[in-house]
Amino acid sequence: MLKVLGERCAGCGACAQVCSQGAIEMQPNKEGFWYPQIIRERCIDCGRCYNVCPWIDMGDSSLFHPSPRVAYAIKSKSRDIQMQATSGGLFAELARKFIAAGGVAYGAGYNSSFQVRHLRTASMEETEQLSGSKYVQSFMGSVYALAKQDLQQGKKVLFSGTACQIAGLRKYLVKDYENLLCVDVICHGVPSPRIWEYYVEKQEKRGGKILEIIHRGKTIGGWSWRKQFFYLVFADGKVLRENIWENAYMLGFLKDLYLRPSCHECMFKRLDKRRVSDITLGDYWGCEDIEPDFFDASGVSLAIMNTLKGEQCLNEVENISKKVTNLEKAVSYNIAVMYSYRRMLARAYFFRKFHSQMSLEEFGRLVDTCVRLVGYENSLRKLCDYPRRILGKLKRMCLGIGAKS
Ligand SMILES: Cc1cc2nc3c(=O)[nH]c(=O)nc-3n(C[C@H](O)[C@H](O)[C@H](O)COP(=O)(O)OP(=O)(O)OC[C@H]3O[C@@H](n4cnc5c(N)ncnc54)[C@H](O)[C@@H]3O)c2cc1C
Atom 20 in ligand 1: which residue has the minimum CA distance? Predict the structure, then answer.
């Protein structure tokens, strides 16, 4: 049954978690992305995996909330929280509120080997692990089941992740819970855990034990794609600090060399901007132009309220500055809200050439080659597009379409 999905599967793992027989395991494929594998002897053909899958059931438009209600520019009033976060720090402020009310917060953090996993956190200290974007697909393990237990016990649950992970949770839960708030991040796409784990392992072989990793670290006033840094802190005190456009791993991510195949046709990016979570969070790119009086060069979050519940929750968060903003203008700077990034030919070249024995220098050279290939492909596409546009113009001229009378 799950073969139907193929590369459209986003790996949320709801099918594995719902299976009462333990007949589905999430296994990495050769690119390093998890896909469900059915253990035939255990399967009793109950169809629960089929029913829980957000992709098989994409016709289920009830997953999508009606059009967004309002959007805000937001930043935390705490400089520490803002600096730790990738954008304005709204997620950490929301999490604080849930924890202070005896609730729990779920989101992506690292385990001791810097693999990215979804974690359940129940204290302020634990919640800190969720701060900051990790540009790797997060493994869901059994968090949907844990969240369900928390919800049934009446705890307030904040569940964050990518839109596909939120969709998986909502399908898994079947019904809506008043004590659940879902938050999704605007998502460029998630890179392969295999490439990430290779990268961490090679860095550790070279520099010794790693103590801390920050994918998009900022300095005060340094929140912009051009100014951000990738950081590795080693146990002996050494620090690797590279501009994100010069760090091979981040460059490969930004140029879409190793995103999950489903991210190139993401079902959760819609032109009508309807979303599956209560609040959608992202970087407020364009804030400088759209809200110059609110702009803060240390980071501003764009927060889209998709439900009344989301809006009410936000109104209860105290330690933030916020300003209503124009959603249309904001998303025009952030195409990841509505569009998936193209699957470039260079992606196939990358995976054909990549092997885990390659040195970091070889990896860097492979990424550079692929980046050049991406450039050639884009130029060729533009070139091929040119005659089509000229022909269209000619056609419109000849047929008098769009001509002024
Ligand atoms: C893979 C990825 C791609 C992104 N692409 C874009 C984009 O194109 N445009 C844009 O505006 N914003 C994007 N973001 C979101 C952005 O980087 C910030 O996470 C978001 O603005 C929230 O910022 P914050 O300051 O409120 O919280 P932060 O502290 O920066 O973020 C913490 C939140 O991010 C979640 N998170 C971190 N890593 C992951 C992960 N691997 N998988 C799932 N959830 C994760 C945590 O669970 C938590 O909810 C992306 C995030 C990720 C993880």
Answer: 282
Instruction: Report whether pLDDT(405) > 50.
Output: no
**Do the strands 104-110 and 157-161 form a parallel or antiparallel pair, or are they unpaired?**
parallel
Q: What does the pLDDT average to over 126-144?
A: 96
Alpha-carbon distance of 298 to 221, in angstroms, equals 4
Beta carbons of 241 and 274 less than 8 angstroms apart? no
Domains in the chain, CATH or no CATH each: 2-52 (3.30.70.20), 64-191+259-337 (3.40.640), 193-257+344-380 (no CATH)
Q: How far is CA 91 from CA 82, 84, 228, in A?
A: 10, 11, 19
- Which protein residue has the closest C-alpha to ligand 1 atom 50? 187
**209 C-alpha to ligand 1 centroid (Å):** 26
Task: With a cut of 60, say whether residue 147 has pLDDT above it.
Answer: yes
Question: How many angstroms separate the CA atoms of 19 and 51, rounded?
Answer: 11
Instruction: Among 98, 165, 185, say which to mutate for ligand 1: greatest number of ligand atoms within 8 Å of CB.
Output: 185
